[in-house]
Amino acid sequence: MAQINVIGTNGGRTIDLDLPEVNKGVLHDVVTWQLASRRRGTASTKTRAQVSKTGKKMFSQKGTGNARHGDRSVPTFVGGGVAFGPKPRNYGYTLPRKVRQLGLAMALAARQQDGKLVAVDGFGIDGKTKNFVAWAKENGIDGTERVLIVTDDAQARVAARNIAWATVLPVAGLNAYDILRHERLVIDAVVLEPAQEGEEA
Predict the structure, then answer these.
(1) Which long-range contacts (C-beta less than 8 Å, at least 24 apart) are formed by 74-81?
(2) Helices (H), the chain
(3) Is 49 within 8 Å of 95 (Cβ atoms)?
(4) How confident is the model at residue 64 (pLDDT cuts 50, 70, 90)?
(5) Every domain range in the chain assigned CATH 3.40.1370.10
(6) In the chain, N or C: fewer CB atoms in 10 Å?
(7) Count of alpha carbons within 13 angstroms of residue 46, beta-carbon side
(8) For the chain, percent of residues with pLDDT exceeding 90
(9) CATH of region 2-41+91-196, choose from 3.40.1370.10, 3.50.50.60, 3.40.50.300, 3.30.565.10
(10) Rounded to two decimals, what is the model's pTM?
(11) Model pLDDT, residue 194
(12) Which has the closest alpha carbon to 109: 11, 181, 179?
């Protein structure tokens, strides 16, 4: 059972969170699934039926000393079609919901084990970047690490969005990949508290 201190204007309490043991295999599966879903899949090449070439036979079948050919669009010629080339496709695939939830919980556990998980209840700042930087310094965030800020506090999001070392996400956008690619996680305490009661984090 992990105990997470809550800071902020409404802080001063702890959250007891039952986090799973980190399994790198599960995290790998979840991150791979996320990245596959993000792929655009727009690569495309033309087949021999799609290139613009004449259909006239290039030269006589016999007597020229050349190999027999009848079409300029074949893949063996420069400017011809591509054989088995990429076409637009969707790289996404399904991953069981329980695995996705487990991966997210393990990503949170990884940051908690490193002491890099900060729960906030009320940032208490306006939308100015300098005020957010001051708040961060007061709470031990000096900008030497990449920080993921997950909050629905509109003022905090506006204040942090122009900071080079910070990435801002709404609570609905919380995901394992972004947690793992940042050294520190700052998150609304309300996101963690339902998990204390057995609900989904």
Answers:
(1) 74/48, 75/48, 79/51, 79/53, 80/48, 80/51, 80/53, 81/45, 81/46, 81/47, 81/48, 81/49, 81/50, 81/51
(2) 24-38, 97-113, 129-138, 154-160, 176-180, 189-196
(3) no
(4) very high
(5) 2-41+91-196
(6) N
(7) 12
(8) 82
(9) 3.40.1370.10
(10) 0.82
(11) 62
(12) 179
Write down how long the chain is. 201
CA 67/CA 60 separation, integer angstroms: 10
- Which residues, including other chains, have CB under 8 Å from residue 174's CB and lie 6 or more apart? 104, 150, 187, 191
Mean pLDDT of 41-59: 93
Mean pLDDT over each residue of the chain, to the nearest integer: 92
Cα–Cα distance measured from residue 136 to residue 140, given in angstroms and rounded to the nearest whole number = 6
Is it the case that residue 201 has pLDDT exceeding 90? no
